[in-house]
Amino acid sequence: MSQHQDCRMYEAKYPEVDDVVMVQVKSIAEMGAYVSLLEYNGIEGMILLSELSRRRIRSITKLIKVGRQEPVMVLRVDKEKGYIDLSKRRVSQEDVQKCEERYNKSKLVHSIMRHVAETTGRDLEALYDNISWPLYKLYGHAFDAFKNMVSDEGDTIFKRLEEEKGAAATQLLSPEVREALLKNIKRRMTPQPLKIRADVEMTCFTYDGIEHIKAAIRAAEAVSVEECPVKMKLVAPPLYVLTTQTLDKNKGIEVLTTACEACQKSIESNRGKLVVKEAARAVSERDDRLLSEKMEQLEAANQEVDGDDESEEEEDVGMGDIDVEAGPAFVEV
Questions:
Q1: DSSP character for 234?
Q2: Taking 70 as the threshold, does the pLDDT of residue 209 lie above it?
Q3: What single DSSP character describes residue 55?
Q4: Could you give the CA distance from residue 128 to residue 131 in angstroms, rounded to a whole number?
Q5: Where would I find the S1 motif domain in this sequence (predicted)?
Q6: N or C end: fewer C-beta atoms under 10 angstroms in the chain?
């Protein structure tokens, strides 16, 4: 394995004026903040004091901190002297989102390219020159080209690179390099299903309330489509969660929102009530783990309260000592 290598992420050695780039704050001085441009191999730039905020600056350390990553706009570039003046205050929220999205894509591409260079002993900049930089031109971003390589083993991409760069690319793209590149792309970029969840509170105080809640749950789950199967389960009365797993986040949120509406319509038609506590959203493994822990704690607490001498009928219902005819109905199906 070769020693650690690094280089800029894009073919241009310097950003253009008005570009929004990602930087990391290195130090703070009287004139402003010294930063390194993360996408340009860490070359130095400065955010001028007057360009930190649109408002009056009372404390510079409250506006910017050493070590923090910030999207900033390029004001001036002196390529001969290596000076780059930057602005934080001129960056809009839309600029921030676009910059973060581009940087996250470029960072993943960079990580893959560095790993290929280190495992094959090739020069990182040579790999960029013959693979990534041409792909930025051909596909808008090398990330998008890499995504295509997951499905077709890279044959189309490798062919276009050889047409674009000629003999240099053919020589560099040895079987070893191709295998290392494909292996890293598939490991890092194969789509993983997202878990989408919505939290609701549902009650029904009428006679046969349990049956009405069961019907509402069935109505929610009936919204399922092949790519977004919907499940609804009890956390602890009156809290329920609706979940689905999908590769398409927007589609998952849309399906789960529709499921909540179907559930609400069903329960309200039987004089019940449903309140959405948290709308459909993508959840992390940590969120999922916290929910599981909460359910385990509540189950343990219920077992302690119920004791070991509950009737078989009560155990089947899972409702403790609730009188269905007299009290509110909650159910898990």
A1: E
A2: yes
A3: S
A4: 5
A5: 18-89
A6: N
Residues of 289-313 as b/e, b for ≥16 C-beta within 10 angstroms?
eebeeebeeeeeeeeeeeeeeeeee
| Superfamily designation of domain 96-189 | Translation initiation factor 2; subunit 1; domain 2 (1.10.150.190)
First-to-last C-alpha distance (Å) of the chain? 55
- Where residue 4 falls among pLDDT bands split at 50, 70, 90? low
**Which residue stretches of the chain are H helix?**
60-63, 93-120, 124-127, 133-139, 142-152, 155-165, 167-172, 175-189, 209-221, 249-268, 285-306, 312-317
Number of Cβ within 10 Å of residue 330's Cβ equals 22
Residue 252's SS3 state is: helix
Integer CA distances (angstroms), 187 to 72, 101, 149, in order: 32, 20, 12
Planar angle of CA 322, 323, 325, nearest 5 degrees: 140
What's the rounded Cα separation, in Å, for the pair 273 and 118? Answer: 60
Using only C-alpha atoms, what is the Rg of the chain? 28
At residue 59, the pLDDT reads 67
- Considering only CA atoms, which of 99, 98, 82 is closest in space to residue 42? 82
In this structure, the number of other CB atoms found within 10 A of the CB of residue 253 comes to: 20
Range 194-303 classified under CATH 3.30.70.1130: yes
* Percentage with pLDDT > 70 across the chain: 88
Q: Bigger pLDDT: 158 or 90? A: 90
Q: What token pair was written down for 136?
A: 């930025």
pTM of the model: 0.60
The CATH topology of domain 20-89 is OB fold (Dihydrolipoamide Acetyltransferase, E2P) (2.40.50)
Closest CA to 24 of 2, 39, 3, 4: 39
Q: Scan for tokens 């046969």, then name that residue.
A: 208
